[in-house]
Specification:
With 86 residues, this protein is mainly α. The chain has a domain of 29 residues. 65% of the residues lie in helices and 0% in strands. The protein contains 5 helices and no strands. The chain is extended. The two termini are 31 Å apart.
Length: 86
């Protein structure tokens, strides 16, 4: 039995894309079709979003994260759970 789940966009993501291209149909043709370009851009966007958090942390926190003394993803999940955010 194959239990692999194929990732797909959420309905909200699809709406965002539709709004983005509304009135810009020629842009669809101009877009590159190289998946590596899009993968690179997506990684950069994720890094930018993550840096929004690290930009506001103290130097001490950043040093602890950089040296592996704090596991930031695990810490964020724990804080979110305590705050009732899921």
């Amino acid at each position: 039995m194959n239990t692999t789940v194929t990732p797909k966009l959420t309905q909200n993501d699809e709406k965002v894309i539709a709004r983005f291209f509304a009135g810009r149909p020629s842009m669809l043709q101009e877009m590159g079709h190289d998946p590596e370009v899009w993968a690179h851009l997506a990684r950069r966007s994720l890094e930018k979003r993550m840096s929004e958090l690290t930009d506001v942390l103290s130097n001490g926190a950043l040093e602890a994260i950089a040296t592996g003394k704090i596991d930031l993803p695990a810490t964020c999940k724990s804080i979110a759970k305590e705050a009732g955010i899921s």
